[in-house]
Amino acid sequence: MAARKASEGLSKLVGDEVQRWGSMKPTGVSLRYMMEFGSRPTERNLLRSAQFLHKELPIRIARRAIELENLPFGLSEKPAVLKVRDWYLDSFHDLRSFPEVKDKADELAFTQMIKMIKVRHNNVVPAMAFGVQHLKKDLSPSFVPTDFEEIHEFLDRFYMTRIGIRMLIGQHVALHDPDPEPGCVGQINTKMSPMKVARAASEDARSICFREYGSAPEVSVIGDPNFTFPYVPSHLHLMVFELVKNSLRAVQERCMDSDKDALPIKIIVADGIEDVTIKISDEGGGIRRSGLSKIFTYLYSTAKNPLEENYEGVHQGVTMAGYGYGLPITRLYARYFGGDLQIISMEGYGTDAYLHLSRLGDSQEPLP
Ligand SMILES: Nc1ncnc2c1ncn2[C@@H]1O[C@H](COP(=O)(O)OP(=O)(O)OP(=O)(O)O)[C@@H](O)[C@H]1O
Fold first, then answer.
1. pTM of the model
2. Which CATH superfamily is domain 187-358 in?
3. ipTM
């Protein structure tokens, strides 16, 4: 579909429909609810789930489309942001033009449609990053990072709701799996071993490190190998991958500068009553105190930006670092199910990342 012009404005494009849906209140779901509901994926429950999404997704999508139209500093006019807004409008339109979901056939067609919506939005993160980068370039040298607070808050809200939308779609689609792995309820593994996921994510990060530097520091994972708890393995994988990638880069660069051996990275998994905490410790030299306040912003990275040319297809080749998105996005994933992320640094020595995951899974989705 041809890109719409920003000047056409939202209200003219889709009338009051987006505004009307965008003013409705979204309904949050908890990990526990998803797990209990999804444990009986009967025809009736799948139908109920599709009916819920048929009403819920347009609300969430409309709210973001409206925000995308009203960003400060002219960010809404940037071509990459316009493209993202068009993806949201197209998805809103697909959902609203889908008739009421009444039976199994409707439900299957609806599932197919939302699966397509998820694919359409695959490149939202790099596209938005490209738009923001573009804006930063336009504003420099008068660029003041505090000006970006509003944009930063918007991006936090925007990506948080994106995680929610993708979780809801992914969960509904996954409940159709005729042969789920034992213990899995859609995307949730009721017996997820955090050690196993941490190991796999570390190996993935190490292979990127190998590709980039020709070697990779060792990563050891300490904890109870039999311990399991319900969580979404793909979320945990993504979070540990990002954190280990940062540690590997810091350790690797430090040892290249000093000609010393690369010191191993240590991951400890602790099983508490309220939280499962995963600590990732490295001796990569830490982060300067003056830079610490910036690490959770979307514009701070000490690596060369891979988005300088364009964002199309950036997902095809994961790089070691560059957008400055790893930490803020990881923290959003942790917070989505009631957890958090803290970074403690000792400049001149190393960094500890504490990833807290809420064990009870009772917290409602944060819905900005
Ligand atoms: N373990 C660490 N040791 C030293 N510096 C770190 C560590 N983790 C993060 N940093 C610093 O924080 C910055 C931001 O990290 P973040 O993960 O958000 O982005 P990035 O790694 O630069 O890029 P990407 O978007 O690809 O993850 C890094 O560029 C780096 O300077």
1. 0.92
2. Histidine kinase-like ATPase, C-terminal domain (3.30.565.10)
3. 0.97
